[in-house]
Amino acid sequence: MLKIGSLQLANWLIMAPMAGITNLPFRMMVKRMGAALVTTEMISAKGLVLRQERTLTYLKSCAAEKPLSVQLFGSDPAVLRDAAQIAIQRGAEIIDINLGCPVKKVVKTGAGAALLREPRNIENILTAVRKVCTVPLTVKVRAGWRPGSPDVVSVARLIENCGADAITIHPRFAFQGYSGRADWSIIGKLKDTLRIPVIGNGDILRPSDAFNMRKETHCDGVMIGRAAIGNPWIFKQILLMEKGAEPSFPSIEERKSLIMEHFEALSAMVGGGKAARIMRGLLLWYTKGLPFSSNFRGQITAIKDMESLVSTMHTYFSSLEERQS
Predict the structure, then answer these.
(1) Reported CATH class of domain 2-242
(2) Quick one: which H or E segment has residue 55?
(3) What pLDDT does 325 receive?
């Protein structure tokens, strides 16, 4: 069990926020697979305050995925304060502030990981948001901007002192992106230092990694990102292992069924054409490691309409089922 502020979660597994991935249909799937907490895509605080229609759609939710964490990014304390209030009014049960995104277009605005170079502004942001935040407040950080930049332990102490209810640490430096290995020892340092829950993130590639991270760092929870894109079953597998059972892996038929469910939910939300473009990328993850998947991925890269994509997928999965029979 993991408790964040006043919110008691069903277990210790959290789905990471990922741009273009953690929309409502995907969050619903991983929730059903056992994730205790799901998070929106990273949302621009400025976009929310300006009531931009596209930005507001990121807050679309439903009762079945609750509790929902809404992750905000920005660099202006007043804007983040107002954005947090909007998100709470629209059903957010946790407000998460992003201090870790290394993407250039975010960093150049002074947001995301750029804030790790500005501890004073971190304090201003969290103080402003905490004053109006009536739900638990969490923060996601990286190990720092680069080695020699403000130490993440001192930044984490600042975050705790500003009233955050939990912190998630991805132990790579911002300049690394996703290259190299995540240094889990940094998670352990934060756990040894802080009183609030520490959630570990980074290099959870298979179910056993979640247990290894907890054993090595004593973290309170584990956040899973890219590994869940093509394998949303990973949450179910971890929970089975926790009970002493062998983790079950989806059959070809189960995999195909879930992909179709994802297709249909996305199509209902954004329309068939856009859903087809999104699913083209997701199918690269869903089919990774399957027989003849490289040929299949080559076939779908140019497909732009839903009907052709579904037809090609059915042909591929039918051939896999025939090979098994």
Answers:
(1) alpha beta
(2) helix 53-57
(3) 64
